[in-house]
Amino acid sequence: QKEVEQNSGPLSVPEGAIASLNCTYSDRGSQSFFWYRQYSGKSPELIMSIYSNGDKEDGRFTAQLNKASQYVSLLIRDSQPSDSATYLCAVLDRGSTLGRLYFGRGTQLTVWP
Amino acid sequence: GAVVSQHPSRVICKSGTSVKIECRSLDFQATTMFWYRQFPKKSLMLMATSNEGSKATYEQGVEKDKFLINHASLTLSTLTVTSAHPEDSSFYICSVPDFQYGYTFGSGTRLTVV
User: Does residue A98 have a pLDDT over 80?
Assistant: First the structure.
């Protein structure tokens, strides 16, 4: 069974701070990684995808991937109360282009004003 | 990414009845769709992989006779919860994989069995 672990949380940060979300995965050969945001009672929405080692930035969000350490993270700069949600890390099944995703349990983030 | 429509968004049914949930890919031909279930404050659990024109692939522990999946076209997959029981109450979500943009989720169906 392939494992995806996220820092348990909940994580609470003040408005304007940087929120750091972490994820590790067990399958060393994994190639594709995703971060989803899920508001309470809603379905997940894709925030970032990352496939190569290093950083990938999109607005206030930065995904970081280190395949050697089997580690992927998401940084949220200038956190806003609207960022309060559960963040899910997902890893694509190795060797699969349209295969299943393995999800972590999620980290609940609260940004307080 | 793909535009995914899921209906109904919320359904309440009596124990013993069946409920059908539809997942439509509106702008993308999906040979594969995924069905997930999520209990409160838990992560998504993959139930089955829906394959167009063939049988679905179920995850271990998921009863295929209880959760019937039909993927008759490239744009529609349905999940039917048969003989529903209160323990089937959950949030059911479909997902359409799009190679270019990742995986898009439907809006989900909140099932309550009373």
Answer: no
Mean pLDDT of B5-19: 97
Nearest Cα of chain A lies from the Cα of B19 at a distance, in angstroms, of 20
- Is A100 in contact with B93 (Cβ distance < 8 A)? no
| Residues on chain A touching B95 (C-beta within 8 angstroms) | 101
A43 with B102: Cβ contact below 8 A: no
Q: Does A10 touch chain B (CB under 8 A)?
A: no
**Closest chain B CA to residue A105:** B43
Cα–Cα nearest to A23, from A1, A43, A58, A50: A50
pLDDT digits (tens, 9 = 90+) for B62-113: 999 999 999 989 999 999 999 999 999 999 999 998 766 678 999 999 999 9
Query: Token pair 């190795």 is at which residue?
Result: A94
The string of pLDDT tens digits covering residues B34-66 is 999 999 888 899 999 999 988 999 999 999 999
> Across the interface, do B43 and A45 touch by the CB < 8 Å criterion?
no
* pLDDT band, residue B16 (cuts 50/70/90): very high
Which residues are CB-neighbours of A43 under 8 A, at least 6 positions away?
Answer: B6, B93, B105, B106, B107, B108
Buried b (16+ CB within 10 A) or exposed e, A42-58: ebbebbbbbeeeeeeee
**Beta-carbon pairs below 8 A across chains A and B:** 45
- State how far the Cα of A62 lies from the Cα of A81, in Å rounded to an integer: 18
